[in-house]
């Protein structure tokens, strides 16, 4: 079979994190360096690359970990080509996420790792950054990657309950309920709740309510959307009023939660068929 055509899809998050999904049929790139931390997962084929003085071969599911300024190249390890997802994590973002750990710069223990959980987190974060998700969803996805990286950096997380955790969780919950349509990020929400940082907020919120701030926000928006649809409002207007990026975004979450489209739910409640554009 002929090798697949080369393709690179890149998106950039407001935090400075970049995400790519790429495929190459043969030679991918020459020896080069990055200022960022590179964390990726091979999705298909054999990914052959030079790093740390030796050639490496990554198979599907394996995680690739490259530190800033480590020279590396890339090519296919067999005629079928290869595909992978990769995140480029700025140094400032990593330092902020790892604050409070041991002194000195961290380093990856190895260039290749068998870590299905981290690989899934990388793929999920890349997908979230490529979609019209809100700030909380993006922050949560990237924080999951950071949590998965900690063992590879020798920076285990040792969470300790902090005074005021219950208050922090309650304030964040009230803030999300008061204005669910607002696209607020985890850092801003932590400040509103009086948390030391978004990591304290995430731990306190999950301890108090058994879920993440983002998941709670989505559920709050869906409850509001369901109420508006039952009253006869059109899906596109409901999506805008409830904080979803567009009607398709509302449709994806609504089907996952309730098993039918917003338009179908509106028709069931009102007896009015949707005569506009086809629902998402």
TrEMBL record:
UniProt entry keywords in alphabetical sequence: DNA-binding, Transcription, Transcription regulation
Annotated region described as Disordered, given as residue ranges: 153-179
Domain HTH araC/xylS-type, first and last residues per copy: 170-268
Nucleotide-binding among keywords: no
Keyword Transcription part of the UniProt annotation: yes
InterPro entries according to UniProt: AraC-bd (IPR003313), AraC_XylS_family_regulators (IPR050204), Homeodomain-like_sf (IPR009057), HTH-like (IPR037923), HTH_AraC (IPR018060)
SMART domains for this protein: HTH_ARAC (SM00342)
PROSITE patterns assigned: HTH_ARAC_FAMILY_2
Protein name per its UniProtKB record: HTH-type transcriptional activator RhaS
Species name: Methylobacterium crusticola
Upper taxonomic lineage: Bacteria, Pseudomonadati, Pseudomonadota, Alphaproteobacteria, Hyphomicrobiales
Gene: rhaS_2
């Amino acid at each position: 079979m002929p090798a697949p055509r080369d393709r690179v899809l890149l998106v950039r998050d407001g935090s400075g994190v970049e995400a790519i999904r790429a495929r190459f049929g043969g030679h991918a790139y020459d020896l080069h360096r990055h200022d960022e931390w590179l964390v990726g997962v091979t999705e298909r084929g054999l990914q052959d690359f030079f790093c740390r003085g030796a050639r490496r071969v990554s198979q599907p599911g394996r995680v690739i970990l490259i530190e800033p300024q480590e020279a590396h190249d890339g090519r296919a390890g067999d005629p079928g080509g290869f595909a992978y997802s990769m995140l480029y994590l700025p140094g400032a973002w990593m330092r902020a996420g790892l604050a409070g750990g041991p002194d000195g710069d961290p380093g990856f223990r190895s260039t290749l790792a068998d870590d299905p959980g981290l690989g899934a987190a990388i793929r999920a974060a890349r997908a979230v950054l490529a979609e019209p998700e809100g700030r909380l969803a993006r922050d949560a996805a990237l924080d999951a990657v950071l949590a998965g990286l900690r063992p590879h950096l020798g920076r285990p997380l040792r969470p300790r309950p902090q005074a005021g955790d219950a208050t922090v969780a309650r304030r964040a919950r009230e803030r999300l309920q008061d204005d669910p349509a607002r696209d607020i990020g985890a850092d801003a929400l932590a400040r509103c709740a009086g948390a030391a940082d978004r990591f304290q907020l995430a731990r306190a919120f999950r301890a108090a309510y058994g879920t993440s701030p983002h998941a709670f926000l989505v559920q709050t928006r869906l409850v509001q959307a369901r109420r508006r649809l039952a009253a006869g409002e059109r899906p596109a207007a409901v999506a805008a009023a409830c904080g979803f990026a567009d009607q398709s975004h509302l449709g994806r979450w609504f089907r996952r939660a309730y098993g039918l489209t917003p338009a179908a739910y509106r028709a069931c409640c009102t007896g009015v068929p949707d005569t506009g554009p086809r629902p998402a």
